[in-house]
Design a protein that fits this description.
The structure is a single chain. This protein is α+β, with helices and mostly antiparallel strands and 475 residues long. The protein has 15 helices and 21 strands. It has three domains: 3-103, Uridine Diphospho-n-acetylenolpyruvylglucosamine Reductase, domain 2 (2-Layer Sandwich), CATH 3.30.43; 110-220, Uridine Diphospho-n-acetylenolpyruvylglucosamine Reductase, domain 3, CATH 3.30.465; 224-431, Vanillyl-alcohol Oxidase, Chain A, domain 3. It has helices spanning 18-27, 40-44, 64-77, 127-135, 151-156, 164-167, 195-201, 237-249, 290-296, 298-302, 316-320, 345-355, 405-419, 439-445, 449-459; strands spanning 3-7, 13-17, 31-33, 57-60, 81-84, 100-103, 110-113, 118-121, 139-140, 174-180, 186-190, 210-217, 219-220, 224-233, 255-263, 278-286, 308-309, 312-315, 332-340, 364-369, 391-399. A hairpin with a 5-residue loop joins strand 10 and strand 11. The model has no long low-confidence stretch (mean pLDDT 96).
Length: 475
């Protein structure tokens, strides 16, 4: 009897009966790919080029029945398992070494009911897929900042973006999810059905099963908003950060402003004379009346002489893709992040210091605004927690060549070590790198950690779904 080499859930060698592999192949409407098949290396690649894992099998699913076949195969054989949606996660959790990847990236359907103001998204959808469909009706889901991010991973980790100060976490705005359990059963989770699972799915990551459908609440947003970007020479960094704090601390919930310190890229909207030089930039989204946004953000227009300014009335879809060019697929990425209770002079000086020592022209120090509607619920409202944060900083190291790994990783770690004293003690689960486990996962979940472990025990007691920021099942 011939066999197929793989790795089981405990990391041990596993010899699969080739006939069983062929039976899985026959059961799929999609394609099952192995190391010797065409398209294997493209299928195993993810956004972060630091991730170089080689799965034994990749099932390119095209429907829920394919996902069911894969889950049943994994349960019966014991093969290690991972789930791929958009493949944009910094830790590369979509790809498991020597195991089976349930690749949902071809499942990108999005259905919008404009009258009910809801959208249903399949697990392979990118943010841009949902934005384009919902904006046809001048509606929007609460999603993230980069249109190439997968909605499933974003939502399961909590999710935040330009609309979060107005409407809460992405997961706060989910009405229901449909999930494939480790037993191969399809269940619906909402506030009325399987409420404990619904609680866990809203922030607890991929710990419980394979989500096959997400139902989002939609809100009237766009198609026109006031937003874009504006940048200044870093020689004005002290004053620019002070202005940022002034505007961001007083911002209404309709306004979100992201602040970035980095080397100016060769973007067409930035003065060529400043390409390759340090800048401070702000990326702004105001989803109230356009004229209100213009008035609120006039101080940015009046501050010093910008080296680039594209603050204007624009479409919400264009705003949602504004940062895409800073996060291209195939670069090497390493992040460190913390939630912040607020901003202060010492923190802002630390951000400038870290930004001025970057090792790559692609790296950045980023401040994201939180607060607002995120804090309208108690921490125990859903698994995501950390509703006491008003900002999050992210040290985003990004570079091209493997030989530059050490310098860039050390820069990110050193910058984080200098700044983490300002943290609330919490961190964002979707920003954790591959190495961050244990205490870092507990920091991300805080007081919700033990309840997540109990929900895990109820829905995945054997921990079949462990290629994630894993929470061990505890009865």
């Amino acid at each position: 009897m011939s066999s197929f080499a793989a790795i089981d859930r405990n990391g041990n060698s596993l010899d699969l009966d080739t006939a069983r592999v062929e039976a899985l192949r026959a059961a799929l409407r999609g394609v099952l790919i192995g190391p010797n098949d065409a398209g294997y290396h493209e299928a195993r690649a993810v956004w972060n080029a630091m991730i170089d894992r080689k799965p034994a099998l990749i099932a390119r699913c095209v429907g829920t029945s394919d996902i069911m076949a894969c889950v049943n195969f994994a349960r019966e054989t014991g093969i290690a398992l991972s789930i791929k949606g958009g493949g944009h996660n910094i830790a590369g959790l979509a790809v498991v070494e020597g195991g089976l990847v349930i690749d949902c990236s071809l499942m990108r359907g999005c259905y919008v009911d404009p009258k009910a103001r809801i959208a249903h998204a399949q697990p392979g959808c990118m943010l841009g897929d949902v934005d384009r469909e919902t904006q046809l009706h001048s509606l929007a889901a609460v999603l993230g900042f980069v249109s190439m991010t997968g909605v499933a991973g974003l939502t399961l980790g909590g999710g935040f973006g330009y609309l979060s100060r107005r409407f809460g976490w992405t997961s706060d705005n989910v009405r229901s999810m449909t999930m494939m359990t480790s037993e191969g059963a399809l269940v619906r989770a909402s506030s009325q059905e399987n409420a404990d699972l619904f609680w866990g799915l809203r922030g607890g990551g991929g710990n419980f099963g394979v989500v096959t459908d997400i139902e989002y609440q939609l809100y009237p947003v766009g198609p026109q908003i006031y937003g874009g970007g504006i940048a200044w020479s870093a020689e004005y960094a002290d004053e620019a950060y002070g202005l940022y704090q002034q505007i961001a601390d007083a911002a209404p919930q309709e306004l979100a402003v992201v602040c970035v310190y980095r080397i100016a890229p060769p973007a067409p909207w930035i003065d060529k004379a400043f390409h390759g030089k340090p800048i401070v930039a702000m990326f702004v989204c105001h989803t109230g009346k356009v004229e209100d946004g213009e008035k609120l953000l006039a101080p940015l227009k009046q501050f010093k002489k910008p080296v680039g300014d594209i603050l204007q009335a624009r479409t919400y879809v264009s705003q949602q893709s504004l940062l895409d060019a800073t996060q291209p697929r195939g670069r090497r990425y390493y992040w460190k992040s913390e939630y912040l209770p607020g901003l202060g002079a010492d923190l802002l000086k630390g951000l400038i210091k870290a930004g001025s020592t970057v090792q790559s022209p692609h790296s950045a120090m980023i401040l994201f605004p939180m607060g607002g509607a995120i804090a309208q619920h108690a921490n125990g409202h859903s698994a995501v927690g950390n509703r006491n944060a008003n900002y999050v900083f992210n040290v985003t190291a990004s570079w091209e060549k493997p030989e530059d790994d050490t310098a860039n990783i050390e820069w990110a770690r050193n910058s984080w070590n200098d700044l983490k004293r300002f943290s609330t003690g919490g961190t964002y689960i979707n920003f954790l790198t591959e190495e961050e486990t244990g205490d870092r996962i507990q920091a991300a979940y805080g007081g919700n950690f033990e309840r997540i472990a109990r929900v895990k025990a109820a829905w995945d007691p054997q921990n079949m779904f462990r290629m994630n920021k894993n929470v061990q099942p505890v009865a």
